Automatic annotation (TrEMBL), chain A:
Keywords associated with the record: Signal
Organism for this UniProt entry: Sphingomonas aurantiaca
Name of the featured protein: Putative repeat protein (TIGR01451 family)
InterPro entries referenced in this protein's UniProt entry, alphabetically: DUF11_rpt, OmcB-like_DUF11
Annotated signal peptide: 1-20
Membrane-crossing segments per the record: none
Pfam families in alphabetical order: DUF11
UniProtKB/TrEMBL annotation, chain B:
Source organism, top-level taxon: Bacteria
InterPro entries, per database record: DUF11_rpt
Protein name: Putative repeat protein (TIGR01451 family)
Length: 157, 356
């Protein structure tokens, strides 16, 4: 489970950067890692924290937060995140809507619907390792003052 | 006069070890002269001290990972787009070390400091960054000493003092991620104090740090990131069993039995072929092999050979004879005079005896 205070902290820390962009929509990207801690009730609490020692094979969480700072609703909001080539896509982070993914940066869909073309012309089913970009669409307009976030998990190659 | 008498029969392991010892002796002869030169060269040779290794797909320590998200939206009928901030993650250096020995079994350490015994190891930088390693050696017996640690500078897998430089402060210079290098431990025994069941323990540790997996060294990774100890603990140890070589020449006796029915059963009238293999590390003069005919057997006339060439049984001009009257203290026996023997040479005497 993701603790709310942590995400708030991320937003505060990056406000200065985001506000530099003109327009009513703020968007903030962050890379976090999971920190597990035993809670008093015996459960394990997973917090997302700033990474300090990520090495190959480690899981990292990409979080993209957005907020309509304007006074009017924003329609057809689409968020694109091309993956850095040093990471391999794994899945949507728990609690985040699943993104459409792409293996070529052009065609987006669920992973099961995508195929990868080999050099010899044959195709095979796409795997998470083939994903080069993720995309989310907001189904309804983003009301003034409202906000949200998307997150996905990846592994450092 | 140097008389050789066979010891008890010895299995194949010691034999092959003896061969190694002889080879080391031969190689060392020209190497001593070049040793001072090697020390002068030490600093410049380190840079090329690597051998080909596997290609790694791991992201290198210090690599910045950049992420930017893009948003599109419609406002007042117009489509707009903005980019997020760019977030940067510096990949940390995972410290991992691997050390394996080349070869197996006990190593026979020659008794002479002038003819050291070389034990090779392969050290691998299993990091995702460039790393140096510190070697620690421990010998369990005072009868064996470590003369030096050296790296295989030319990558040929063999120790050559003129090229393969001694390590400074037992530190292996920086290796690129995934690269391996051969390290030689150069050992010498003392003739007076043979050691059985001795061990050499070599431990390699990443210079940046080692310890429990997950231990972090802030800011010490490549590219200014952190370093963190990986699953290997950034440390690896190898224990090598050692035995002291017997000083001087070695005589190994073996036998094969052939019965009249062609089987290998030792019954009456079976013929035993005895093989006496004399190995010399140093040149000697007046070497002589003597062996009594075992009780209950009779020497087969004309069966004595030296290095495959027949020797007559009579005490005549050739090197060998059979003395039925008791040429040895134990009764009838054979005797072969080898005379002048070259260094690093092997001579084989064979004879047959029939079971009575």
């Amino acid at each position: 489970m993701i603790t709310r205070p942590m995400i708030a902290a991320v937003l505060v820390a990056t406000t200065a950067v985001a506000s530099a962009a003109a327009g009513p929509l703020q968007v903030t990207s962050s890379i976090l890692v999971e920190a597990r801690a035993a809670a008093a009730d015996g459960t394990t609490r997973i917090a997302l924290v700033k990474p300090s020692k990520v090495t190959p094979g480690d899981k990292v969480i990409f979080v993209v937060s957005y907020r309509n700072t304007g006074t009017q609703p924003l329609g057809n909001v689409v968020l694109d995140n091309p993956l850095p080539r040093q990471v391999a896509y794994r899945s949507a982070n728990p609690g985040s809507p699943a993104p459409d993914v792409s293996v070529d940066g052009k065609t987006f869909g669920s992973l099961e619907t995508l195929r990868v073309r080999s050099l010899d012309g044959s195709t095979r089913a796409a795997s998470p390792n083939d994903v080069t970009s993720v995309r989310w669409r907001l189904a309804s307009p983003l009301a003034a003052g409202s906000q949200g976030q998307f997150a996905f998990q990846a592994v450092l190659k | 006069m140097l008389d050789l008498f066979p010891q008890q029969q010895v299995g194949g392991t010691l034999r092959s070890d003896v061969v190694l010892k002889v080879r080391d002796t031969a190689r060392r002869a020209c190497a001593d002269v070049a040793a001072p030169v090697a020390i002068v060269m030490a600093a410049s040779v380190f840079a090329v001290a690597v051998r080909p290794s596997i290609v790694r797909a791991e992201t290198l320590a210090g690599t910045p990972i950049l992420n930017t998200a893009n948003l599109r939206y419609d406002l007042e009928g117009a489509s707009r787009s903005i980019a997020s901030n760019t977030v940067t993650l510096i990949v940390a250096e995972r410290l991992d070390t691997r050390l394996v020995r080349e070869g197996q079994g006990a190593v026979v350490v020659a008794p002479s400091p002038a003819a050291p015994t070389i034990v090779p190891f392969v050290l691998t930088n299993a990091d995702n960054g460039t790393e140096s390693f510190v070697l620690e050696t421990r010998l369990s017996s005072p009868a064996i000493t470590l003369q030096a640690l050296a790296i295989d500078a030319d990558g040929d897998g063999r120790y050559d003092p003129a090229v393969d430089t001694a390590l400074v402060d037992a530190t292996v210079p920086a290796l690129a991620p995934g690269r391996s290098i051969t390290v030689f431990a150069i050992l010498a025994g003392t003739a007076e104090r043979p050691a059985a069941d001795a061990t050499l323990t070599v431990t390699a540790r990443a210079l940046t740090g080692s310890g429990a997996p997950g231990t972090a060294y802030a800011g010490l990774g490549d590219g200014g990131g952190d370093a963190v100890v990986g699953p290997t603990g950034a440390s690896a140890s190898v224990v090598v069993p050692l035995t002291s070589a017997i000083a001087g020449p070695v005589l190994v006796k073996s036998q094969s039995v052939r019965a009249t029915d062609g089987s290998q059963t030792a019954v009456r009238d079976s013929v035993i072929t005895y093989t006496l293999e004399a190995r010399f590390t140093d040149a000697v003069s007046g070497a002589r092999i003597a062996d009594p005919i075992p009780a209950g057997t009779a020497f087969v006339p004309g069966s004595l050979t030296l290095d495959g060439a027949p020797l007559s049984d009579a005490a005549d001009d050739d090197a060998g004879r059979f003395d039925a009257a008791g040429g040895t203290a134990q009764g009838p026996g054979i005797a072969v005079a080898l005379g002048q023997v070259a260094a690093a040479s092997v001579h084989v005497v064979q004879f047959k005896a029939k079971i009575q």
